[in-house]
Amino acid sequence: CFTEDFEMSDYFSKLLAEQKLTDAEIKALQELRATIENQLSVLSGNPRFYYAGSYGKHTMIRQRYDLDIVVYWPHDCDYTIKGIYDAVGRTLMKHWRCVIPKTVCWELPFQGGFHIDVVPGRALDATFVEANLYRTDTGTTLKTSLKKHIKIVRGSGRLDAIRLMKLWKERRGVPFKKSFLLEVMTIIGCRGTSTTDYSKQLVAALRHIRDTIETCNIKDPANTANSLSDDLDKAARAKIKAAADAALRAKYWSEVFE
Predict the structure, then answer these.
(1) What is the torsional sign of CA 40, 41, 44, 46?
(2) Bigger pLDDT: 3 or 20?
(3) pLDDT in tens, 220-240
(4) How far is Cα 86 from Cα 232, in angstroms, rounded to an integer?
(5) Which residues contact 123 (CB under 8 A, 6 or more apart)?
(6) How much is the mean pLDDT over the chain?
(7) CB neighbours (10 Å) of residue 137?
(8) Contact 123/70 with Cβ under 8 angstroms?
(9) Torsion of CA 217, 221, 227, 231, to 10 degrees
(10) Above 70 in pLDDT, residue 3?
(11) What are residue 48's DSSP bridge partners?
(12) Cα 186 to Cα 58: distance, rounded to the nearest angstrom
């Protein structure tokens, strides 16, 4: 029942415009990165700093966003992966009131739900494309490429569709734990649809999620040994399927997003 016309196109454009961060908000994020980069600059080894997450991928929405900062040490440094993770955490604790260890990063929470994730790692080679991260839950290393994640999403032609799907996720409390999983499933689901027809893209993405979420095992395109969907239990998958089905059964898009 969803068809794209000029009126609906205007509706989606309005939603997307509302979810765009202001110049002041972007500047605040950039200043926070500069502050953290300055704080961690006391650590030796000449690490490199990058934006990751929704900021780096250009999929950020005002409804809910955070800031991901990647800190990679050179491949030939003398530090262990765990040593890098611990040193970053100790340094951040000297400057921030609350620093929370997470699976591969350190979280700096702020009021209102906003937080910064600082992701330390050691590059695999001089290109800094791939890196090993320390996993606190297993005490092992995780090889991935956040740069490849960014390249895949930015080059997909689906940035607006992804931002709308993230808005659906937030407004309907859909229990995706990894934003990248939602982004990848949106990209896969939208294959063959026009990049300018919002309705067709959303229907295709929602159908793909509804029909596959209960059994899918989505691999990390940067390292197929990693699963993006392994942190979703049976109950979470069932809730995601139900939310996608409810969206597809809605008569109007306003029922999905308002």
Answers:
(1) positive
(2) 20
(3) 999 999 899 998 999 999 999
(4) 28
(5) 48, 72, 73, 74, 75, 129, 130, 131
(6) 94
(7) 8
(8) no
(9) -90
(10) no
(11) 72
(12) 15
Residue 142: predicted pLDDT? 92
The residue among 78 and 5 whose pLDDT is bigger is: 78
CB-facing half-sphere around the CA of 116: CA atoms within 13 A: 23
Here the tokens at position 171 are 């407004």
**Cβ-count burial 221-246 (b if 16+ within 10 Å, e if not):** bbeeeeebbeebeeebbebbbebbee
Residues 73 and 88: their CA atoms lie apart, in Å, by 11
Tell me how many helices (H) and strands (E) the chain has.
10, 9
* Cβ proximity of 234 and 228 under 8 Å: no
Q: Is the pLDDT of residue 1 over 50?
A: no
Judging by DSSP bridges, how do beta strands 115-123 and 67-73 pair with one another?
Answer: parallel
Query: What's the CA gap between 70 and 118, in Å, rounded?
Result: 6
Q: Which amino acid is at 24?
A: A
